[in-house]
Amino acid sequence: MSERFLVTGGNRLEGEVAVGGAKNSVLKLMAAALLAEGTTTITNCPDILDVPLMADVLRGLGCEVELDGSIAQITTPAEPKYHADFGAVRQFRASVCVLGPLVARCRRAVVALPGGDAIGSRPLDMHQSGLRLLGAHTEIEHGCVVARADVLEGATIRLDFPSVGATENILMAAVLADGETVIDNAAREPEIVDLCNMLVQMGAQIRGAGTSTLTIEGVKKLVPITHRVIGDRIVAATWGIAAAMTTGDVRVTGVNPKHLSLVLDKLRAAGARVTYDPNGFRIVQPDRPRAVNFSTLPFPGFPTDLQPLAIGLASIADGTSMITENVFEARFRFVEEMIRLGADARTDGHHAVIRGIPQLSSAPVWSSDIRAGAGLVLAGLVADGTTEVHDVFHIDRGYPRFVEILTDLGGDIVRVGATSEPAQP
Ligand code: UD1
User: Fold this and answer.
1) Candidate list 50, 85, 117, 287, residue with the active-site label
2) CB of residue 24 inside a 6 A radius of ligand 1
3) Residue of 367, 296, 314, 357 whose CA lies nearest to 337
4) For the whole model, what pTM was predicted?
């Protein structure tokens, strides 16, 4: 039985919070270290469970990895191993991003199919078809993605959808391929730009980072460097939404507010006073938030990772909100947990309609993924009584010092140990 949080509602959040490096960046940057022999240093690493898990994946591939506070030092051998087995990768989705670097460096890869969040089907077809166009043979065999390439040659690859993971894997294979690769309909997330910046510093030739066309001229070799991870926009927005939900006043630093333009616009539409500075933003919510509609889309659209938090906001807003999920089909499972807390919510396919009520009512609830877990805690902050949030290991995978930060901001939250209570009904 996993640890749980006891969250007692009613407190207004107030204060300042500094966010660390982005989870969805650091794990890919660590994988990119496989592309260069020698020691790569990554700074501003967040203190989350997925970082040591990724370190274990890299150790399994023959790297030496030292984690010291927010610094990761990864020493990659001349000939990395190419088999990332089930033991290390099954626990988190991002482990699949070693596939591209291994194909580039070793010309072969065996990567067990990853685990991760229960947010819907997450096939790898676009990762595989991109690698095939670069000249690799790839199949799923015995629970692993197996890829082998005698030569890797640049190609034009048009993605059906701007998948973050497929863009990253194809990009990391293409940097060491012969000739020019064009990735069309590429993902434009800030974490992709961060990865491109690191690869360019390592000697890669990439144009178009942050646009939907990436052009990569393959080079023979990359060199190890030091790179600082960008701030975590999803964690930053979580604290901003928490401020809005609790009619609070929170300043968030350590993030580029341009990475959150649409999210901050939505909070303003909900009635928040939003101020920007180059290194963050401040949210002051004077009254009960107003209902706002949200529709998730790839960047620069509203992030799917914030959808559960948007549902939390909508559930106590004044008015009715329509929320549309366009990225992960099963993410509305979270709504069932919100209904336990009294939310007036209905889903129909990709849509959820939430009629805001003034206050939720506490209940035991279960986290199913990182953001759903955080969403339930935020809901507990505006519920009457004490909400028990179970399976909080999900939250620890993505949020550093979650309880400490929330407590510093004035939230009433306690972590309690494992129990032998029954599992989720
Ligand atoms: C990454 C993020 C995750 C975020 C998501 C979308 C990491 C570790 N995770 O996940 O937090 O929610 O981007 O912003 O960075 N798809 C296919 N075939 C493929 C690949 C993807 O059909 O080969 C589909 C997926 O099922 C999903 C959609 O494309 O419906 C988006 O997935 P993708 O952008 O690849 O997300 P991840 O990289 O897995």
Assistant:
1) 117
2) yes
3) 367
4) 0.96
